[in-house]
Amino acid sequence: MSGVLIILLLAAGIGIFIVNNKHPDTRDQERLVDMIDSLLPQTQCEKCGYSGCRPYAEAIVRNQADINQCPPGGQHTIRQLAYLLGRDIKPLNPAYGKSGPKTIAWIDEDICIGCIKCIHACPVDAIAGALQQMHTVIAELCTGCELCIAPCPVDCISMVLTNRAGHRIKLKPETRSAQVSS
Amino acid sequence: MNRELHSFPGGLRITTHKELSNDKISIITPLPDRIILPLQQHIGTPAEPLVKIGDKVLKGQIIARATGYVSVPVHATTSGRIIDIGDYSVPDSLGLKAPCIVIEPDGDDIWFDIKSTENFESVDPKALQNVIREAGIVGLGGAGFPAHVKLKEGTESAVDTLIINGVECEPHISCDDRLIREKPAYIVAGTRMIRHAVQAKHCVIALEEDMPEAFEALERLIDDDIELIKLPVKYPQGGERQLIKALTGKEVPSGGLPIHIGIVMHNVGTAAAAYRAVTRGEPLISRYVTVTGELPDPRNLQVLIGTPVRHCADLCGYQEKEGEVIILGGPMMGMHVQNMHIPIIKTTNCVLVSSTFNRNPEMPCIRCGECVDVCPAELLPQQLYWHARSRNYERLREYHLFDCIECGCCAYVCPSNIRLVQYYRKAKKEIAQEERARRGADHALQRFIARNERLEREMQEQHDKKDGMSDNIEQETDKRAYIQSAVERTKAKREQLKKTDSGTDE
């Protein structure tokens, strides 16, 4: 008799669990968004097609976006997201960009005209400068989102590699021009 | 005084091969063609150069100053000319380059004006710490932690025991043994100085049983104030935590420091360097290095810091041979180096030439559990291995990867030849990297949120301003209307008055 009762209780428990899982309330969803957001690199680069890391996390929870749309996070982030969500690991979708070593923006101060367009574009306030004054990227704060590249009217911003301490690796002039043109 | 001895868990009893190098007197290495001094020879922040290319420097002159608290200055180790400041290969397991200052010796070896501290016992412990810092002294046991930091911790909390570590547990290395035999007075005096600097109640010098000559040399010099202890030979007894466990039976808590249980430990080499720094004012510019292995003449050398490894090996009759590996440090924990033009730095204790190094292919783990028995940190090497391979960082933390001292006991006993320590080192590096990235991401997120809030605030302010302006316009029109009405009223009144006036006139 008690055995039957236990089985019934178990069945009820599992039933409640399944129902809860099928209809997660908004609080659970919020928590899941938080967890996904905490795995994303927070570059706010918008390469995934959303206006920031959190909107992308929300889209993943709503099943509108896949887990392989974050180029700065690369394979590492995809792996972590797959573990978290119990999905298969898949390669990065090349439609959203390529992943590579971390780069940061660097302003060629000889060319910069001080138009403050890049300052407005930077999502993390990593560019210092004022109107008609030369601008510079604060290397430690730059997330490498590349959002400042497009608005620059004189193309004086390029992405450069960093060393272990997060500082710009000074390239020889010929390599630099090759990198800029690529 | 009789101290009850304990033992640490795990460990190995391995052939030490110290007889190759420890019975020959050390020789002072002649000046090399060039001296390469890395700006970072210690744990912490690199030093900052104070000299330019072309400058003349004297022996013992500070050529790079300490930046920050966990940092020490770099001194010129001989007199000469600075010929370059730039990136050179340094002792690094990945073979990376790092900023160095290169000196071309002039051969005169002239000392800079150095000051000695007389009568150290009357000097304030803090001042003594400063002298040791200015002399660029770092832990000479291997890790290279700036010595003054450990001393400072001592003055900040009560130190029960100061341990001077003469346990040279790694096979082949005998530089501390030679140092004690040749300069026992330095060590005893240096020990007393460090004791004064940390104000320790007890003081112990610990040696292993396979150093009887060193033991006798010290025994002749010490009084009742210092305990001299001989421990049975066991690897890795020279590890800080292992030696504390063996001497006191106490365990340093995971993630903690020896000072948390009232203990400060320094290497014998550090004690000797402290003696030189205090009584003679000599900075740390040379050290004992064992050059051993498959060489015609293995021995100990007194080497100026910055001397290329090749120069030292040549003195011992080194001939390049196919299939040889050069290891800096001992066979258990040392690092392989490809390039022999790298300099000897403050933490280099041994140059080992070996051709019998384990090159057998790795085979699958058979779960024999040998590694668990020998681990001196009481970890589960097998579990760490699985999780390191699957990059499961969370589980690695749960299994206390960061308590691993990388002693290599597990890899030594592994019947499948698995290079376990390599996996742990790699995992530690990756975890540190991930944590750095995580901190960066958190910071970026904070800045992103702050920026969005600011933008919203600015927008709100602009909006408010606009609202305010339109209010003004209304007020203005009200005002005008009010004035207008007032004007009209007065006009009307005047008219009225005119009329009544004219009426009365009529």
Please tell me about this protein's structure.
The complex is a heterodimer of chains A (182) and B (506). With 182 residues, chain A is mainly alpha-helical. Chain A folds into 2 domains: 2-96, Orthogonal Bundle (3-methyladenine DNA Glycosylase II, Chain A, domain 3); 103-181, 2-Layer Sandwich (Alpha-Beta Plaits), CATH 3.30.70. Chain A is 38% helix and 8% strand. In chain B, 38% of the residues lie in helices and 16% in strands. Chain B has helices spanning 125-134, 147-156, 175-182, 184-198, 212-221, 240-248, 268-280, 309-315, 370-374, 381-389, 393-398, 409-413, 420-505; strands at residues 27-28, 35-38, 48-49, 56-57, 62-65, 74-75, 80-89, 97-105, 161-165, 202-208, 227-231, 263-267, 286-293, 299-304, 325-328, 335-337, 350-354. In chain B, strands 1-14-13-17-15-16 form a 6-stranded mixed β-sheet, sandwiched between helices. In chain B, strands 2-8-7-4 form a 4-stranded antiparallel β-sheet, with no helix packed on it. The model of chain B has no long low-confidence stretch (mean pLDDT 89). The interface between A and B is medium-sized, with 15 and 12 residues.
